[in-house]
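Appendix B. Raw example, untouched.
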Amino acid sequence: MLNENITLKKLHIFLTFMKCRTMNKTAEMLNMSTVSIHRAIHSLETELQCPLFQQQGRLLSPLDSAKTLEIEAKILLKQLGRTISETQETAGIFSAHFKLGSIYSLTFNSIPALITSMKKQDKKLEIELTTSSNKYLFKKLTALELDVIVVSLDAPLLDPSLIFFPLFEDHLALAVPVNDPLASYSSIALADIKNCPFVMLSKGFATAQDVLRTFEKAQIKPNVVMEVNDIFSLISMVSTGLGYSLLPNRIARILNDKVKLIPLHEQDKIKQTITMVCLASRSKEPKILAFTKQCHLYAKSLRDAK
């Protein structure tokens, strides 16, 4: 029958005493008073209803009962530690498997750089990347199906259950075919193309939401001729001349030679903040701390490069 008065703390004190063999050394190692050490050992004897030590001068000499308790307590604490580790690993905590979520537009540069840095720090770490929309990624994060997500936010979210770390800021630009007359513009106002056909990402994507906000700010209703579910299809549609689109500057380096990005006039620009997000309750987990550190270093490298 379990005795709730025989606690793990008392067993820990007992095992430390068995190792040190004196009250003073045990108290020093545990940063406790000798009175507290003596009280814990005496309490164990009371709850076990048997003596563990006999007095020999000023020292306590362990009886066979104490030696038996020492062996069994070590086994118990070791098994408890294993149980905790296996439970945490099953839940994805402290495992060698890292589940990262990202929006599509970050997989061309930022995410590969962060993954490479993580792998350099821990070659045994297995990283699983999920790419999707902001909405889907937040859902997976709160369901504990992702450890960390990197998304685009137009404004800080006031949610104490989440921790946010901004990496860098970006803006949308007009994507046009390279042989289009607008390709020669150094910048453009949305008002100048308000009646032109546009290809859009489906709702739920961060960029799609920011495109709509950009048009709303300019008080323009876009002439949407097609919606697509990924940025690659969108680039392809623009290159064929089906319509223009608004895309983040961060994808400029992966555009084919058939599409060009034209900056918007200052009054039409809307800021995107690329942000790492994790659950506040999991922020101290080693692999999440390691990824947060890499995000800090990556953000610093971008600032230093300016």
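End of appendix B.
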